[in-house]
């Protein structure tokens, strides 16, 4: 429940420096509220929303990067944390919170489906990592590297390793329906792009009846008679 205003003020008066008589807040209190939140040493980032109860004691992630270089399906190396030095595949990307989740790495164990009658299942859950805590792996030597975006002579935007100067290709990612467009092969019930782009109808100013008669070789010899209104 919500505490009464008087109890809330009394509890924070020593730390927030609030004038109870006037009901106003001093400048020191405003500055303390605007101070940067320090991340606890044992804090673990989670995927809960900032306004939920699960995240109310935590802190928000860093600001989203404007020039995002890590994509879903990339192979990266962890630079900090308990799995430092390990390489893994990016499973999820949270650009609005500067997070990436790696397959099978940076895991913690938790209970799922816990009820009063059952303690649930004890499963491993992958926790997110900050973008600054991972680095792309150069496929030429399998070592981490910093990258920057550049343009090729054909005008394609690519990622280039600053250490080796090689292009790091974008990963092949499945769509939500499980299809990889780059690896798709047409089946017997698929329409090829050539058939789709083939021009099979040429529009004209003739009516539908006139087009059908012309196609079937029907010649109309009758004349239109005048109509009269009475």
From TrEMBL:
Entry superkingdom: Eukaryota
PROSITE patterns: RIBOSOMAL_L24
UniProt keywords, alphabetically: Mitochondrion, Ribonucleoprotein, Ribosomal protein, Transit peptide
Primary location: mitochondrion
Gene Ontology molecular function, alphabetical: RNA binding; structural constituent of ribosome
GO BP annotation list: translation
Sequence ranges assigned to domain KOW in this UniProt record: 69-96
UniProt keyword Cytoplasm present: no
Keyword Ribosomal protein: yes
InterPro entries, alphabetized: KOW, Rib_uL2_dom2, Ribosomal_uL24, Ribosomal_uL24_C, Ribosomal_uL24_CS, Ribosomal_uL24_KOW, Translation_prot_SH3-like_sf
Compartments where found: Mitochondrion
GO cellular component terms, semicolon-separated: mitochondrion; ribonucleoprotein complex; ribosome
Family statement: Belongs to the universal ribosomal protein uL24 family.
PANTHER family reported for this sequence: MITOCHONDRIAL RIBOSOMAL PROTEIN L24
Name this protein carries in UniProt: Large ribosomal subunit protein uL24m
Organism encoding this protein: Dissostichus eleginoides
């Amino acid at each position: 429940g919500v505490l009464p205003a008087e109890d809330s003020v009394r509890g924070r008066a020593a730390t927030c420096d609030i004038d109870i008589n006037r009901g106003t807040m001093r400048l020191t209190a405003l500055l303390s509220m605007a101070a940067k939140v320090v991340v606890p040493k044992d804090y673990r980032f989670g995927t809960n929303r900032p306004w939920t109860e699960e995240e109310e004691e935590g802190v928000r992630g860093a600001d989203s990067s404007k020039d995002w270089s890590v994509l879903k399906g990339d192979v990266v190396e962890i630079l900090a944390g308990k799995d430092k030095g390990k390489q893994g595949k990016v499973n999820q990307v949270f650009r609005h919170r500067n997070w990436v989740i790696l397959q099978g790495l940076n895991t913690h164990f938790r209970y799922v489906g816990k009820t009063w009658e059952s303690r649930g299942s004890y499963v491993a859950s992958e926790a997110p990592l900050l973008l600054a805590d991972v680095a792309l792996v150069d496929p030429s030597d399998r070592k981490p590297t910093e990258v920057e975006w550049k343009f090729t002579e054909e005008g394609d935007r690519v990622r280039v390793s600053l250490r080796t100067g090689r292009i790091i290709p974008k990963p092949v990612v499945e769509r939500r329906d499980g299809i990889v467009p780059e690896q798709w092969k047409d089946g017997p019930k698929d329409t090829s792009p050539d058939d789709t782009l083939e021009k099979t109808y040429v529009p004209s100013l003739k009516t539908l009846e006139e087009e059908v008669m012309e196609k079937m070789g029907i010649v109309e010899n009758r004349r239109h008679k005048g109509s009269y209104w009475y």
